[in-house]
Design brief:
269 residues; alpha/beta; TIM Barrel; 3-stranded mixed β-sheet; 10 helices
Length: 269
């Protein structure tokens, strides 16, 4: 069975707020990850290519592949990440949260860490990135009612299509959370694949609308990240969500209901 690690990154750099810093990597450490991929003779693929190869059953082309993905749409994708990928003739998939790009393009100084739409176009033109979707407002889609979740999905899809000229076919769930209902909405909206997290390797029989990814954090040593990049020391999907994800779900539901009650109370005054 061909196994492909789908690596989950966010930002690359040191200029991050304290809450986001654990999810970012210094540029030299990220470059070391890429060099580990190159030294082992692995080939990078976008999510779109990965799913096409699996659909076609092209095992020889799937062998020794790794997919690099980035969530949210940080500006350093263009300034830092793309040059490192281009230098090594590698590719990745960037999942964009479209309201973030809207705010940056509108000139809000507090949002300068995100890509603008002009920068997203430049990112695509580097040839190193496939552009995917990550919802419009980066919300927990599994906590929303059907109408709100559908609006988040469609707004993100349509903003990317309007600004970049093509509808995205790949999606990543904010925080990795989804439900069968949300997954069905994505299929209806024209998406061919969607990524969760699960911190597992993606096997040939992985669920296309809930693909497993490898969670990479700043605290992980290079040796550990390298083992995961090689497809070692992790579960192979399809597999259940991590236990902590399942245990935390009721807590998230309670918090979501409490927020809705507070919002309703504020709106009534």
């Amino acid at each position: 069975m061909t196994v492909t690690p789908i690596l989950c990154y966010h930002g690359v750099g040191d200029d991050y707020p304290k809450t986001e810093r654990p999810f970012s990597f210094p540029a030299d450490v990220f470059a070391a990850h890429l060099d580990a991929i190159a030294r082992r003779g692995l080939r990078t693929v976008t999510l779109g290519e990965l799913m096409r190869l699996r659909h076609d059953g092209d095992e020889p082309s799937l062998a020794r592949t790794v997919a690099i993905t980035f969530d949210d749409g940080y500006a350093d994708l263009l300034t830092t990440v793309a040059p490192l990928l281009v230098e090594r003739q590698m590719v990745a998939t960037a999942f964009l949260t479209t309201s973030f790009l809207d705010h940056r393009s509108a000139g809000r100084p507090s949002d300068d860490r995100w890509l603008s739409w002009d920068e997203a176009r430049a990112l695509r033109e580097t040839g190193a990135f496939e552009i995917g979707a990550h919802s419009h407002d980066h919300v927990e889609l599994d906590m929303l009612d059907v109408g709100d979740a559908r609006r988040q999905i469609h707004a993100c899809r349509d903003r990317i299509a309007d600004e970049l000229g093509a509808r995205p076919t790949s999606f990543a769930y904010p925080y990795g959370y989804s439900t069968p209902t949300v997954q069905a909405m994505l299929r209806e909206a024209g998406f061919m694949s969607a990524c969760g997290v699960k911190h597992a390797l993606s096997g040939a029989d992985d669920v296309p609308m809930n693909l497993a990814r490898v969670r990479l954090l700043r605290r992980h040593p290079l040796a550990t990240a390298t083992r995961w990049i090689e497809g070692q020391a992790l579960r192979v999907a399809p597999c259940p969500d991590e236990l902590r994800t399942r245990l935390y779900r009721p807590v998230r539901r309670l918090r979501h209901r409490a927020r809705r009650r507070r919002d309703a109370a504020s709106a009534s005054h």
